[in-house]
Amino acid sequence: MITQFRDWEQNRHTYAKAWKEKTGGKVMGYFCTYVPEEILYAANILPVRILGSHEPHDVTEAHIFGMFCPFCRDCLAQGLKGKYNYLDGVMISQSCLHIRQAYTSWIKHVPIDFSYYLPMPNNIQSTHAVKYLAGELAQFKVAVEKWIGKELTDEDIKHGIEIMNENRGLMQQLYSYKKNENPLISGEETMEVAISEQMVDKREHTPVLKELIDKIAGGAGSKNNGTRLMVLGSEDDDIAFIRMVESVGATVVTDDHCVGTRYFWNNVENNDDYLEAIARRYCERPACPSKDWIERSRIPHILSLAKDFDVKGAIVIQQKFCDPHELDIPAIIKALNAIDVKTLFLEFDVTVPLGQFKIRVEAFLEMLQEDDLF
Amino acid sequence: MYKVGIDVGAKNIKIVVMKDGEVIAKDQCLAGFETKENTLSLYQKILESANISESDVSKITATGSGKKAAYFAQNSITEVTAAAKGATSLYPSAHSIIDVGAEEGKSIRCDGNGKIVDFALNEKCAAGAGAFIESMGRALELPIEQFGELSMQSDKEIPMNAQCAVFAESEVVSLMHAKTEKKDIAKAVNDAVASRITSMTRKVGFEKDIVLIGGMAKNTGFVQALKKGLETDIILAKDPEYISAIGAAIYND
């Protein structure tokens, strides 16, 4: 049922190269999900998220401080090793310093035609944030127009928004089926769909996603009757980890990750000023902890996910040295525990010690199952 | 009918045979390279020496990091659950269980009914486990049985980095070169391991009574350092290395 999504996820570079050859279009690698893909789609540029490979590497030591997170190092390693050699441009929206260092090293050491740093505001809760970001988006739009040699009309931007909104809406719909008892799609399967969504042309991804939703609505799918868990925390696209968790008796029913719900949870709302509408969407989306202040909006959002998806426990993931999440995690664990959602904290590195983690996850599930006996 | 608990640890296999909540027979051997064969032969040896027929065994439950080696067991549980079950069944007042074996240190917090509330396991390094003591014993040419007692004779406090067993070993070598007395180095090693376990236990949270299980409970120097680190008394389990096997045997009773 998810064969196509898995194929896209596993052969992401082959797909992007073929897309480029087929369409003659440009491919933009992006480092953070605060990048406004709407404008890229408006310009017929394929946005491809830069992710790590989860393989050991030895090429980033000279470029990134040892106490920066393994994810940013893994991303940079892909660039230094030429895995993304088909990219025409790379860009980042300001999120955390670690991933910005990966971007900065990338543009310094990997020759590229176009690069762009979008200064997404850190204080997204400021009353000035949307206006500020809209202004930055206008400048970004001009830079893109100059790069592609074509002016982007309101109609183009509107089209970009529609492409993104349709795909995000379908992802929301897909996740709504995971609220059901014994959902017909596993956490591993939804992760395949979610990762592929970040690197495949949405105009190809959307029809296949529609077919998947139709199948699930019709009662087809996999059997998932494990203990209901959510996963949350730092960036996590580690499919092998989710597979292991589900193999020992869990079903991952929801998440709060940037390779997951945070990416598609809200849409761009109608507004005659398209750039302001896009800016509002990115300021109001479920926040990354690097932007979630002065108020911590993530906690009520995560608690609401936990309740809506009826989760029994949560696996809290932190990429080693991920400062923003490190700051948030104690408060999140406390809030989840207060509503009787138990938590298991795991620290991730470039490679994950699956054997060690398996023992912890199994013990965590036994602890949750024991709750039912008392 | 008899119930059997098998704990296949990183270094040793421990097996108990129980009847009506009492341990009838117990034994252990090295896990070795042929762990499956060694597990089966230890099981058969215990039954034979206790004069019990295999058909009289109603349930075999395996636990431990190598539990798959007990392929003939009908059930398996994690070492966290087994440790908590075993300790709280023998010491019902236990609210915290600290289990330090060859390769794994764990801290478990339970409510008053033996239900696990939270737990933590040592991460990615043997510095918080018994194998580290063995390794340091080899470096000091000190038999493991004498390690704890000798360290008790020292009143020195030598700080040691126990974040990594390999780095810690190089520190031991430096201390040896500096002609530091063997008993002082032994105490530094025990203090370092206890510090790791104390830190993990504080993270999980603890309340009395605290029960210490696992082979390291036999190391008197480590026990003393752990009591000092946690600033409280600790109950030492009898036959501490068998507690998880007992927990497995009585699981789901």
Descriptive labels:
heterodimer; A: 374 residues; alpha/beta; Rossmann fold; four-stranded parallel sheet; 15 helices; 8 strands; B: 253 residues; Nucleotidyltransferase, domain 5; five-stranded mixed sheet; 8 helices; 10 strands
Written account of the structure:
The complex is a heterodimer of chains A (374) and B (253). With 374 residues, chain A is an alpha/beta fold. Chain A has a domain at 23-148: Rossmann fold (3-Layer(aba) Sandwich), CATH 3.40.50.11890. Chain A has helices at 3-10, 12-23, 37-42, 70-80, 97-109, 129-148, 154-176, 187-197, 202-217, 239-247, 261-264, 274-284, 298-308, 323-338, 354-373; strands at residues 27-30, 46-49, 89-93, 114-118, 227-233, 250-256, 313-319, 342-348. In chain A, helix 7 (154-176) runs parallel beside helix 9 (202-217) and helix 10 (239-247) crosses helix 15. The longest helix of chain A is centred in the middle third of the chain and has 23 residues, at 154-176. Chain A starts with a helix and ends with a helix. The model of chain A has no long low-confidence stretch (mean pLDDT 95). By secondary structure, chain B is α/β, with parallel strands linked by helices. Chain B folds into two domains: 1-91 and 239-253, ATPase, nucleotide binding domain (Nucleotidyltransferase, domain 5); 93-236, 2-Layer Sandwich (Nucleotidyltransferase, domain 5). Helix content of chain B is 40%, strand content 22%. Chain B contains eight helices and ten strands. In chain B, strand 2 and strand 3 (22-30) form a beta hairpin. Chain B is globular and about 60 Å long. The chains are: A alpha/beta (374), B alpha/beta (253). The A-B interface holds A 342, 347, 353, 356, 359-360, 362-363, 366-367, 370-371, 374 and B 65, 77-81, 113, 115-116, 118-119, 121, 123-124.
